[in-house]
Write a structure and sequence with these properties.
By secondary structure, the protein is mainly α. The protein is built from three helices and two strands; from the N terminus they run αααββ. The protein has a two-stranded antiparallel sheet with strand order 1-2.
């Protein structure tokens, strides 16, 4: 069912977009084409088709999960204004 001019006006108002009458007619035609495409896509039988993450077969390039940085927590907390039991203390901002 193609969108009416009233539907397009309502969508434009919700999106805070000002459209002239010519733009409304053009938008109606564009939306109608989009809805037709959606209907054609929904009509395709996809039973038995396995979902894919990418249209071409790909493998993720993974690196070994190794620690590459040293633990510098003590160094960072030494210069912090307030620390207690390994946690940074910050002022309360919500009353």
């Amino acid at each position: 069912m193609p969108p009416s001019a009233a539907d397009v006006r309502r969508l434009a108002r919700l999106a805070r977009i000002a459209l002239s009458d010519e733009e409304i007619a053009a938008t109606q035609a564009q939306l109608d084409r989009v809805f037709d495409l959606i209907e054609r896509l929904q009509a395709v039988d996809t039973a038995g088709v396995e979902p894919m993450t990418h249209p071409q077969p790909m493998e993720l390039r993974l690196r070994p999960d190794e620690v590459t940085e040293t633990d510098r927590r003590e160094d960072y907390q030494r210069v912090a204004p307030a620390v207690e039991r390994g946690l940074y203390l910050v002022p309360k901002v919500i009353e």
